[in-house]
């Protein structure tokens, strides 16, 4: 599976963001990619005000543009995430489209990023978003893929649920900041890969030091052995990398973590 991890700049102009995303996805297709992944909130700035102003229902302009782009390029497209309006509620939602432009899956961010540090940073996603409540795994010709968004990856139970549901890789549109990113970004993607013996893909926006929310960037791909196979810096980047999902079985045969679980003592249910 040739993957394209798209670390694109994000501006306050939705139309510009959609055009930039389309250019990157077309370049990914030209590079032979079969799966392309955009970052969290690729269509608007990462602020509660921007989330509310840019919220659209499934089937709205952003959704249609991404479906059309998948159909045009013939790629599987994980369309980062967008503010999805559903009645009175807004979700941080990642939509997945197959090469025919059909919606193949969607994930609503389950764990909302709420921090309020006395004398420090305050950011409350729950002031805008409603939390999702589903473990998301979807079928592709390459195998099952798991999908979560940013803060979701910090919860090992969710990653394990996706692995137990058959995911061979976990795809994570994300936007860690300049405090959490240097401390935990690589650590988390490598550890979830090692824990579950699968590939992890983390795709972030490019860093804009002048923006209202400064993304760490560092889009990353890790192997089931915990190796960093590809990684961007802070600037806009298109990473193309081949992923051999058969490595999962090889690693699991060498180190039988999943088969050695004590399900007579502990178990997950969902």
UniProtKB/TrEMBL annotation:
InterPro entries: C-N_Hydrolase, C-N_Hydrolase_sf, Nit1/2_C-N_Hydrolase. It comes from the Bacteria. CDD domains: nit. Residues 1-245 form the CN hydrolase domain. One of its GO terms (biological process) is glutamine metabolic process. Pfam families: CN_hydrolase (PF00795). Keywords: Hydrolase. Coiled coil: none annotated. GO terms for molecular function: omega-amidase activity. This is Carbon-nitrogen hydrolase family protein. It comes from Candidatus Avoscillospira stercorigallinarum.
């Amino acid at each position: 599976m040739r993957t394209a991890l798209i670390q694109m700049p994000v501006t306050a102009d939705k139309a510009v963001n959609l055009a930039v995303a389309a250019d990157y996805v077309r370049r990914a297709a030209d590079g032979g990619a079969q799966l392309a992944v955009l970052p969290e909130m690729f269509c608007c700035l990462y602020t509660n005000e921007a989330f509310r102003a840019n919220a659209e229902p499934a089937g709205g302009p952003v959704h249609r543009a991404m479906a059309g782009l998948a159909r045009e390029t013939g790629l599987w497209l994980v369309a980062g995430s967008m503010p999805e309006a559903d009645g009175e509620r807004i979700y941080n939602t990642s939509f997945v489209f197959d090469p025919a432009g059909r919606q193949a899956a969607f994930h609503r961010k389950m764990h909302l990023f709420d921090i309020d540090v006395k004398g420090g940073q305050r950011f409350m996603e729950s002031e805008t978003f409603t939390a999702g409540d589903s473990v998301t795994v979807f079928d592709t010709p390459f195998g099952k893929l798991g999908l979560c968004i940013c803060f979701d990856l910090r919860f090992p139970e969710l990653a394990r649920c996706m692995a137990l549901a058959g995911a061979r890789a976990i795809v994570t549109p994300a936007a860690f900041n300049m405090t959490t990113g240097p401390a935990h970004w690589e650590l988390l993607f490598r550890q979830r890969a090692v824990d579950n013996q699968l590939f992890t893909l983390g795709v972030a926006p490019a860093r804009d030091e002048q923006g209202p929310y400064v993304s760490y960037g560092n889009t990353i791909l890790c192997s089931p052995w915990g190796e960093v196979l590809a990684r961007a810096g802070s600037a806009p980047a298109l990473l193309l990398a081949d992923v051999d999902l058969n490595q999962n079985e090889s690693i699991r045969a060498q180190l039988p973590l999943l088969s050695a679980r004590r399900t007579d003592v502990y178990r997950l249910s969902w």
